[in-house]
Design a protein that fits this description.
Elements lengths: L5 H7 L4 E9 L5 E6 L9 E3 L6 H13 L8 E7 L8 E10 L2 H5 L8 E7 L1 H5 L4 H16 L2 E5 L9 E5 L2
Parallel strand pairs: 1-5, 4-7
Antiparallel strand pairs: 1-3, 2-6, 4-5, 7-8
């Protein structure tokens, strides 16, 4: 077997897109969702990981940019593998625990980010009509992770009827 020179090997390694978001919730498990100006589906605060940026740094940066909130993030709740879909390449999505937020705090958010149209607190059932199914499932897993104290590893895009949570590990 012929081995590639290290530089060629490194250049041949697969590259994945990466995103990171923050789960903020109130004491009734309603979640903070943001309505974006650039697509019809809503999101949790977060975005694409930039070059040489750690996912947790992305999550904190996006939370501040989108909602003006600066806080220490909690545990990693979910890692979701996302298969290639159309023009979007394969990727990984991380969800970090942003902790509790009050309804009053959410109402006080005055986003200056041009990408954010509005912000609100929604139950998981209410969120289902606003979110892409994969994100709804990811948020459901994140809420379970908050209560179990375990990180959930998911695989989005599996055919219906097949369990998407492939591994659950403890702390």
């Amino acid at each position: 077997m012929d081995l590639l020179p290290f530089g060629e090997y490194a250049a041949s390694l697969n590259r994945k897109r990466t995103a990171a978001g923050v789960l903020l919730r109130d004491d009734r498990s309603r979640i903070v969702l943001v309505e974006t100006t650039y697509k019809p589906e809503w999101e949790i605060p977060g975005g694409a990981v930039e070059a040489e940026e750690a996912p947790w740094a992305t999550a904190a940066r996006e939370l501040h940019e989108e909602l003006g909130i600066t806080r220490t993030l909690g545990a990693l709740l979910v890692i979701d593998h996302i298969p290639t879909r159309g023009v979007m390449p394969e990727g990984l999505a991380f969800v970090f625990d942003g902790g509790l937020i009050t309804e009053r705090e959410v109402h006080g958010i005055q986003s200056t980010d041009p990408e954010i149209e509005s912000v609100g607190l929604y139950s998981l059932a209410e969120a289902e009509r606003l979110l892409k199914p994969a994100l709804h499932d990811r948020i459901s897993a994140a809420l379970r992770a908050v209560h179990s104290g375990e990180t959930v590893f998911r695989e989005s895009g599996r055919p219906p009827g097949i369990d998407t949570e492939t591994v659950t590990l403890g702390p």
